Amino acid sequence: LSRLCIKCPFKTLVVGRQQRERDDESRNHINSAMPPLQGLSVAGLRAAVARPVATRKAGARQQGGIRAEIKKITAPDGSNSDSGKGSKVTFRDPPVFDRASTKTGIVHIGVGGFHRSHQQSYLNEMLTTRFEAAKDWCYTGVGIMPNDADMRNYLAKNDYTYPIVMRNGIDADSMSTEVEEVYSMRDMLLAFEDPVACIEAMANEDVKIVSLTITEWGYRVPLTMGDFKLIDRALNGELQDGKPLHEDSLTPTTFGVICAAAAARFQRGTRPFTLMSCDNLPHNGVVCKQRITGAAEELVCGGICSAALDEFVVWLQTEVCYPNTMVDRITPATSWEDIATLPARVGFEDAWPVMCEPYKHWVIEDNFVDGARPSWEDVGALLVPDVRPHELMKVRMLNVTHSALCYAGVVAGCTHVHEAVTHKMIRPFLKRLMTDEIAASLRADPSMEELVGGLDAYAELVLTRFENVAVKDTLDRIAMDGSEKFRVQGRAVVIEGLADERSVRGFALYVALWAHFLRGAVTAGDKVRDASAALVSAPWAAGGGGLEAFLDIEEVFGVLAQHAGWRGAVGREFEDIADAETGFEATLLGYIFGVGHSCTGGDLAPGGGRAGRGSGTFVLEEACVPAELRVDHDDAAAAVEA
């Protein structure tokens, strides 16, 4: 297939079946193989939970309707609302409605923690406030990966309902919790159990939208011969002919089943669905369009299908809509500790609750087939003609900063995000990275004109959200798929900065910290959880070439792999972090105050000049310190001197 004449940008990537079957935590931001409690078997979990103060009933019937009910029971101490020192727990009131009066309007692929905390929450709120307008837009989930069976089984036992537990607070005394019971999902199918059923679910005329959360990595998985056979059968009207499926068709890929469903609708003469990505991926709608039309072009160029395909390709390009979206809600993997302590903390028990922050944000390009969509704007989503400015601000200010924080935190010995962001050096490092380098890239973009005035406030909001102790998001989770995150989210900021001769020293430090993280993991024998794990781990094995070999990886660094000035900048930061005289904190301090190295585009031009090094000794240049950051910087300096 790699020899086919196809325009799809992902055609050259070869991903083995075993890599496509990575654990569900990496793909869906959940942890289906959650670490067991010390000395406690899964079977013994319920028995080990002390003093449950509530019972959660799945499928309880009330006034003719079916919903999951949280029934509070007074605890032995007489309380039924607050739990834990200083904590406050509130419950959103779920409405009573007849599940039979709803129907599926959206099929979603990738039912993980983030989808359950974000898109489901918006529709759930619509069902609460505008039931008649929302009842035809409920979700059917589709699982592609083997681990999706765990999620399907959990949801089925819960009558396809579950709780979202929103926690917020910077310490135990300020902690607050709000619980939302979600009932916007109707059912869930598994492609590896019945691929035709999944295709038919998406081909149903009642379904107007197919959405997906499969992470950045999921868009690079190539189609298989089994996918092509499914598409071929759909185009020829043979999905229900009773003939045995091709062996590989029993384990289809995400875009294989989507393209087959689109083919079935095309063959039957029905209107197409809208394909909507909800992943943290720049231009995610454009990527979806490239991926799905590329799959059809592979069929044309390879002569695989017996049906004429030209009209189908044109139909995918002109009739299907692919809106871009920007999504945001921090949703860490659910842990066994979360499950075990749920009764004592919030008053009920559940096998797989969603734990997240209260904040959520969704910006959607208003581009849907025949205008058919839920009225998400009624519950806080923003429908706009162009998502790009919002997407660019969020991906660069939040996602890029998240990655930089993660590697700095691991090198500093932290475990959780809130620990790292409150570290005496890491927070001012992030603040300068955001306000100097990332914000500069956004201000230089003409499309950002309406949003640039709020960049400083947005940067502060991001850091405040990271401080949320209750979320307990782990740095290990944020570190997953670092190669894809830098390639998709961070690399462009560096390239733009070099081209415009702006400082990119903070990004050089970010990559140097990432390199130290990888070296430490490989040296310790820890698993590097990355779609390109073998590629980014190899340089750190014995005889692997170290930093130079790491920076040679063009799949990750692109043209930066050939940029001598950039490579030198990363190398200097890498050496300073490892140097006994400077070390981690002094290296960050040098960046915070703008001393030690100069890393503008002019200084980093290939063969260009190199600033003198100030290892271990910093002469503060106040002109380098933005006035609004001096409080943070002075605190950092005082911390080091202490």
Description of the molecule:
The chain is about 45% helix and about 10% strand. The chain has 27 helices and 14 strands. α8 crosses α11 (about 255-270). The termini are far apart. The radius of gyration is 25 Å and the shape is globular. It is α/β, with parallel strands linked by helices and about 650 residues long. The strands form 4 sheets. A 5-stranded parallel beta sheet has the order 8-5-4-9-10, sandwiched between helices. It has a 4-stranded mixed beta sheet with strand order 3-7-6-12, sandwiched between helices. About 50% of the residues are buried. β1 (about 55-60) and β2 (about 65-70) form a beta hairpin.
Query: Which secondary-structure class do the elements indicate?
Result: alpha/beta
**On the 0-100 scale, what is the average pLDDT?**
81
- Rounded to an integer in angstroms, the radius of gyration calculated over CA atoms is 25 Å
Percentage beta strand: 5-15%
Main β-sheet description? 5 strands, parallel
Shape: globular
Strand order of the largest sheet: 8-5-4-9-10
Q: In whole angstroms, how far apart are the ends?
A: 61 Å
Task: Determine the number of helices (DSSP H or I, runs of at least 4 residues).
Answer: 27
Helix residue percentage: 40-55%
User: Spans of 5+ residues with little confidence (pLDDT < 50)?
Assistant: 1-86, 605-642
Count of strand segments: 14
